[in-house]
Design goal:
The complex is a heterodimer of chains A (112) and B (458). Chain A has 112 residues and is of the alpha/beta class. Chain A has a single domain, classed as Nucleotidyltransferase, domain 5 (2-Layer Sandwich). Chain A contains three helices and six strands. In chain B, strands 2-1-5-4-3 form a five-stranded antiparallel beta sheet. A five-stranded parallel beta sheet of chain B has the order 9-12-15-8-16. A two-stranded antiparallel ribbon of chain B has the order 6-7. Classes of the chains: A alpha/beta (112), B alpha/beta (458). At the A-B interface, α2 of A face α4 of B.
Chain lengths: 112, 458
Amino acid sequence: MRIAVPIWEDKVSPLLDTASKLLIIESETQNEVSRFEAFLLEKDIPRRCHFIQGLNINVLICGGVSRQFSGMLTASEIKVISGISGPAEDVLDAYLKGKLLDSKFFMPGRKN
Amino acid sequence: MKQQIENYTQIIIDSIADGVFTVDKDWKITSYNRAAEKITGIGKNEAIGRYCWEVFKASICEQRCSLRQTIESGRPIVNQPIFIVNSNGERIPISISTAVLKDANGTVVGGVETFRDLSDIEELRKELTSQYSFLDIISKNKDMQRLFGMMELISETDATILLEGESGTGKELFAKAIHSLSPRKKGPMITVNCGALPDTLLESELFGYKAGAFTDAKRDKPGRVALAENGTLFLDEIGDISQLLQVRLLRVLQDKVYEPLGSTKSEKANVRIVSATNKNLEDLVKKGLFRDDLYYRINVVKLVLPPLRKRKEDIPLLIDRFLNKYDKLCGKEIHGLSPEAMSILMAHNFPGNVRELENIIEYATVVCKNSLIKIENLPENLLQSLDRRNKTAPPKTGEKAFSLEAVEKDFIRETLRKNDWNRKAAAAQMGVHPSTLWRRIKRLNLEIPKQNGRSRKK
């Protein structure tokens, strides 16, 4: 399974629409087996979505995201978990352990 | 005492219509007003103590944070347009201003950001556009506005209407508007393109046929006239129909009856006919190619649609409309055209009229990667035709074959010529002050005829 997180410094990027880098990890039975980074150079949403589609991602964990973008990703069969903030490593670790949906990672105003 | 001052401060910032928040040196929110709650959709209690980027989710947070720039440089930033994503996932256009917060000793303790929701301004802009629009047609040209007035009057009657205009001027849009304003709006509107079908086929399409009328006519087929019952029949390119069909159509208009192919019985037709042509029917009548009795039947009310080159003031409005449409279709954020690209479009003659402009904008939206359409995003043929025009114009020393100046010069000369060299009228059409126009004429060394334009004003 491929999990992606837009990153800014060592944190989850605040807004996927304008994020510049994506950290992608490959996991098997809840353990990370490999990782790589991809630069999000495309500015407009359809191209950005098309680029992410090409990375064969199953789950995308992000902070803020516009409804339009999130809708496009969902339509591309990518599971989007939005409204998440905090250090990227902690977020990934929590996801793999099934503990991500813990309020300490929630952005203010997150709607469940 | 301190508590009281804090209360007063909160009351003051809550009374401000713009969103206001302050951060400490760790970028954590320390105060947050009511307008900020409304714009972001995030309550004060949730926001206080959180990092500003978690609450604000702005387009600039990651790479060019204005507040960071202000705190680092000490220089405030005023009215920078950006967008944020609110708690509902909606992109909200806002303008932000930032300033540094210092304590009594002059030490920087954080920053303050005020932001204004521009959605209302966007709405107002839309409202302004709607003043110039009539159903789906958009124009501020006085001839078009007169047509809008006429349409309201004629739509209520059953009068036959003839729409005359070049290809791409929006004849079908007018026909649709007439139908939707008429008492027949609940009925169907059926369009037939008379130029697209051969004569015999057009006859069966219009009037239908009975089983056995010809080989393979195994069952009855209703014609478009029957399908348009209680509605409107729109006959596009009516100038292309044959003399034989003209006679049959005349009967529908005159006696409100017709016979389907192979039928011995007349059928009644309750339709309103709107026809359109890009030809001059009067000329065709004179040449004997169009029956004069039919011409007078369809020409009860004639609306002549002006070509786009005669209503260039509508180009920016139409561009705005098309940008909006294709932005949504492509999911892009294109705000407009660069002044150079706009000048090129204003100088173009648009033989294909509004349809051509729409195609140009669609092309530009597809190839444009930024938020502004530039010259290089316009179709090649448009630039080539302009280049050709520049090359065929008498060469002048020191002037580039294709430059913004040449385009501007061309546009001003053309507008002046159309207004009989009357500078005031030309300036009004261009939407600038006469003295601005005069300065431009001077700067561009534009030669204009010696006669006094004012005396020629109509």
